[in-house]
What does this fold into?
Amino acid sequence: MGMESLSNNNGENMEKKLDPRVESLAIPLARDYAEKNYPKMEDGTFQPAWRGVNGEKSLKNKSPEDLMAEGYSELAAHKSVIDIANESYANYSDYWKEQNRGGAEYLIGLMDERGADSLLGLDLDDKETRSEYGSLIHENWISRNEWVKDPNYGDPKLACGFSELSPEEQQKDIDQLGVLQKWISEQN
It folds into this structure.
């Protein structure tokens, strides 16, 4: 297992063992999200999805060129944002890797708890299945993304229960189960 350096409350470094299955699942989760949520352009790339490398909300949808127009140096502009739709997972910043790992870690835990065969057999079109698993996945996402509740930067359309989400947002949660099912079948 790989190691990830973490700091505890005293500023001391601690090492956390990374389950290799988490990273193995995080990669297809990131790719699936890009393929389903960003329009494909004529050249085969996706419409850019610029984000702050550390999740800064003020940098959302700002390209390096936009930042240079605001006075950033070229180097600072390119180091400040990442195109999460087109960048390979290997080149994601630690912040964006951790965002994808968080979802993957939850799904791996769910698989360990409920069993791979049980999850493989789920009918993702079944209303009860969608509600049960969609709720679990969305609650986990909210717990990892407290910003969604922020009165200035939050999004009340996402800071709610699964059943209150738009059908498009519900599908994003269900799509994660589809990626997990495919990933499980590829492990056998």
